[in-house]
Amino acid sequence: MYRLSSLRRAEFATMFIGALVGTLIACSPDVGTTTPAASRSQSAISKIQGKQTMVAPRTFDDEMESINSRAPGFAGVLLDSTGRLVVLYAIGTDPDLSANAVSDWFASLGETQPAPGVRRAVKHSFMELRSVVRMLHPHSLKGVNAVDVNELENRVVLGVNTASDSEGIITQMVQAGIGNDLVAVRVTRHVHPASTLWDYLRPILGGVYILISDTTRPPNGGACSSGFVARIGNWPSRYVLTASHCTPTSFGYDPSAVLFQPDWSVPNWRVGVEVMDPPPYYDAPMCNPNTYCRQSDVALYESEDASTSFAVARTTWVSLTPGTKGSLDVTSPAFNVTGVVPYSNLIVGQGLQHVGRTTGWSAGQVIETCQDFESTPGSNIWIRCNFTLLATVGDADSGSPVFQWYGGSSGYAANAAGIVWARGDSLWTDGLSRCIGSRAIFSPWQQITYDFGSGLSPAP
Questions:
Q1: What's the CATH number where 63 sits?
Q2: DSSP reduced 3-state for 90
Q3: Residue 88: enclosing H or E segment and its boundaries?
Q4: Predicted confidence (pLDDT) at residue 97 exceeds the cutoff of 80
Q5: Which residues, 6 or more positions from 315, have their beta carbon under 8 angstroms from its beta carbon?
Q6: Cα(155)–Cα(454) distance, integer angstroms
Q7: Using CA atoms, how far apart are residues 100 and 85, in angstroms rounded to an integer?
Q8: What is the CA radius of gyration of the chain?
């Protein structure tokens, strides 16, 4: 059993992404800039992604709107505290129609519907709320840093940088006849990229300490966590995922960026080189009008180590209290990744697991779905349709895996849900000045494949 110590994250090029998380406690974040890629390895990109087609990604909110088109009045779906399915429907519409459409949705995805629960009446349908987003174009409004069609509140929730930004948006809402029953505007601060499962560990697993360095300069780079090990179709190569902002160039290809595990102090601890980190797209159909965007904060490294494994490190015990660290002691067997969590299992209330090099193993529930986050204030670069897990996350957890594990007769089989890239709050600071929070922001696997191609798989 390995004892995993901790290391404060090194300074490296990064960015702050906005989220609807309320006021954050200042925690000595690493501040940097997003550098555009000067050149790209076309052979590496074409090998992984093939020819990019400019087709709008189908997000979780698109799935909800599709259900609403078949069931007028449908307003959303979530799980209650007992794990029962809750179908939301607009007052005055047929609840059976919404419930039946949700059942059809689960069936179309080949998924088993959770235990039937209650049908809860709300004021607005999902399509009504999304039409407000289209009317306001909030991604282009001054000061907006996050956009969410929020199922629990049955409103569109906009995060803004300052009170004056809020006043300006409220004025526009009044002029357009949009009331606060449809839109909530809140002053928020940007979430912090979260950069110990620290020892030299082979095979390469998800959730362990990694360090990324630009080999053209003296040792430098980001201390983060490894994500899932993945394959591309039937190619023999294996790839390690981590967060893009952990690399020397956020959202840009780094031909000289090398990933080490655990660090660069021993030459043969080198794992591989970066092969893909797409630049942001611009405008429709990939992005909202007049904005730049990525679907995920993820970069891909091709492993030179034959011992990579489609698995996530498991530690001796899990924290079930958001904001409290879990065990950092690695044990066997690991969590073996066998598939991907579908959108139907990423609804509010769904339980998921997380393993990161700073906070260890924790578990919690999805609390927010399909949020758009702006990168550094005023950058006009958005990360689209990302999710929030109420679980422990800390600095240096960026790149770590979120997954679904049922336990019991399933053994240690797990399904990949996404990659953590930020913490949404700061509850306390540990002995090495690392901030620990309770809201893990992650890019779901569906969004990751929009950036890297549908052939990317985290399972054998």
A1: 3.30.300.50
A2: strand
A3: strand 85-90
A4: yes
A5: 197, 326, 327, 328, 329, 330, 331, 355, 360, 361
A6: 32
A7: 12
A8: 21
CA distances from 147 to 156, 260, 305, 411 (A): 7, 36, 40, 38
Q: Please, what is the Cα angle at 12 between 8 and 15, to 5 degrees?
A: 105
What burial letters (b/e) apply to 74-84, b meaning 16+ CB within 10 Å?
bbbbbbeeeee
Are the beta carbons of 247 and 11 closer than 8 angstroms? no
pTM of the complete model? 0.82
Say if residues 247 and 17 touch (Cβ distance below 8 Å): no
Lowest mean pLDDT, pick from 150-164, 178-192, 238-252 = 178-192
Alpha helices in 176-269 (DSSP H): none
Distance between the two ends of the chain, CA-based, in angstroms? 26
Contact 308, 240 (CB under 8 A): yes
Model pLDDT, residue 53: 52
- Looking at this protein, which amino acid is placed at residue 366? V
**Do 210 and 135 share a domain, yes or no?**
no
For residue 278, the enclosing domain spans 193-457
Number of domains observed in the structure of the chain: 2
SS3 label, residue 162: coil
Question: 413-431 burial string, b = 16+ CB within 10 Å, else e?
Answer: bbbbbbbbbbbbbbbebee
pLDDT tens track for 151-164? 999 999 998 888 88
Q: Which residue has the tokens 């709107």?
A: 65
How many Cα atoms are found within 13 Å in the side-chain-facing hemisphere of 231?
15
